[in-house]
Amino acid sequence: MDGRHARRDRNRELVLRAARDLFQAENLVPSIDLIAERCGLSIRSLYRYFADAESLIAAAIEQSMTEGFERARIPHFGTGSFEERLDAFVDVRVRLYESSAAGYRATMHHAPNIAQLHDALQRTRRFLRDQTRTQFDPELETLIGVERRVALITCDCISQFDSLEHLRRFHRCSVADTKIVVGQTITAALRGALAR
After folding, report:
1. Closest C-alpha to 164, from 105, 83, 85
2. Which end of the chain is more exposed for a tag (fewer CB within 10 A), N or C?
3. Residues 32, 56: contact at Cβ < 8 Å?
4. What is the pLDDT of residue 1?
5. How far apart are CA 55 and CA 116, in angstroms?
6. Model confidence over 56-108: pLDDT tens digits?
7. 33-to-41, 45, 109, 187 alpha-carbon distances in Å
8. CB–CB of 57/19 below 8 Å?
9. Could you tell me if 152 and 93 are in contact, meaning their C-beta atoms sit under 8 angstroms apart?
10. DSSP reduced 3-state for 162
């Protein structure tokens, strides 16, 4: 039984990896046939591990999200000078986007039709927003009312995947330029606090 379970887990992982590789290749709706061919298993085998194509896609995306949460950790989170916190935040957030962009695109494509992905996307956005708030809490705490709310929204929006995707794919910014845009936007948003 142990050997059978190990083989099942190994094959299931092969299936998920094949789906994620296809996301990476810009195929956001890979067919069961193509996934089976890519991982070297029969279509019948795939249906042993997943009830249907939707559950397979959802599992592949959720696996990508889980790995992303591990990479989202910021060194010395919430501590240090503003410059140190800004550099660490921008570096981790842009690297996180770069490593998770394919999964993000697949999520955006499927979330409107798969409730669990829609919910996971909202949780991820809240997590990233809360991380932003904590990292720049010393500056935000010195602001009040609308000024504070607008500063947080600006810092959050520029560092969410939606904005990073826009910078990298539409504006064709390099990774270095993307970091500059994000860093300068956050600094500008908090300029009232930094001037005090």
Report:
1. 105
2. N
3. yes
4. 54
5. 10
6. 999 999 998 888 888 899 999 999 999 999 999 999 999 999 999 999 999 99
7. 10, 11, 20, 49
8. yes
9. no
10. helix
